[in-house]
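Hi Y.,

Following your request, here is the sequence exactly as I used it, all 334 residues.
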Amino acid sequence: MITWKQSRFQLRVGLLVGACVVTGCAGSKDSNPSSFDMSEYRKVMEQQKGGQGSVENPTPPAPEMTAEEHERAGDMYTQRRNLPLAGVHYSKALDADPTRNSVRLKVGQIFLQQGAFEPALTQFHDLLTREPSSAPAHQGIGHVYLLQGKLREAEEALTQAIALDPSSWLSHNLLGLAYDQEQRHAEAITAYKAALALRPREPGVLNNLGLAYALSGNYEAAIQAYEQAAAAGSAPPKLYNNLGIAYAQRQRYADALDSFKKAADEPRAYNNLGVTLLGMGNPKQAAACFEKAIETNPQFYEKATDNLRQARQTLEKEANGTSASGSTNTVACP
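Below is the corresponding structure, written out as C-alpha cells. Let me know if you'd prefer a different format.
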C-alpha cells in the first residue's frame, strides 16, 4: 500500500527486481524458509556420520559418493529449497576435491540469497584467489556490495565482471541498479539496455528500465517499459503500482486506477491513486479518491483516513495563502 509520505519515493520500490541468483533473491526469507546455516548443516553431517545399521539386519555401507556426485546432489537440494542438505553435499564435495571452484561459487550464492553477506564475500574472495579471472565471483562481490549500499565498490566489481564476461545480462542489470541508486539514471538506462540486448523479455530488467526512465522524468518511456514487462509475464504488484504512477503522471487517470486495481483491491487502488495525486500537487482530487477508498471499505481503511486528513490539511494551507474563490467546487476522483 502506498502512503502519502512515500509517494515521492514510490518509484524506487522495485529497483532490485530481477537481481536474483540461483533460486531466489538475497534476504527473501519468506520464499525460502530453509535458512542456510553452517552449524545446522554440520549437525546434519554429524547425524549422518553417527547413523548405523540395525544389529539384527546389518547392511553394507553405501559406496562413497564422488565430489561430482555430491555437487549434483547439492544442486538438486538447492532446487528443492532444502539449503541445509545442499550445504552438506557441497561441503563434502569440497572435502573430496578442494579445487572445485564451481562449488565455492554456489555456496557463496546461497549465502547471498540468505542475506549472509560476510560469509558470501568470504566465499567469493576465496574463489578469486584460486581463479582471478572468475567473472561470476566478481559479480557475486558486486551484488553483495550493492545490497550493503557500498555503491562505488559494487560498481567497481560489476564493471570488472562485465569486462571478463560481457554476455552476463545479470551483471549489466546489477550495474544499472548501482547507477540508479547513485542518481545516475542515464548510465543506468544504458546498463539496462545492455542487459535487455542479451535477455530481451526479462520482466525484472524491463521494470528496472521503467524505473530509471520514471526517475528521469520520462514517463512515456517508463510506461512503454512497464507495459513490456507486464506483457512478458510474472508481473508483481509493485510493477502495476509503478505503472499506475506513470499513467497518473501523464494524466491517464482511468488507466492508472485500472493498474492500481491489478496490484491490490479496490479500496487500496483508490488510496494509491489519491497518494499519487497528492504527490503531484493535486490535493482536491486526492481527497476525493481517499473518500472513495473509505466509502468502498469503511470498516478497516484507516490508512485512507490518515491520507485524507493530510490532503485536507494541504487544502487548508493553500486556502490560507490564496483567494478562496472557487475553493468549494466539488471535485471527483478521476
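Residues 135 and 263 are 37 Å apart (CA to CA).

Thanks again,
Q.
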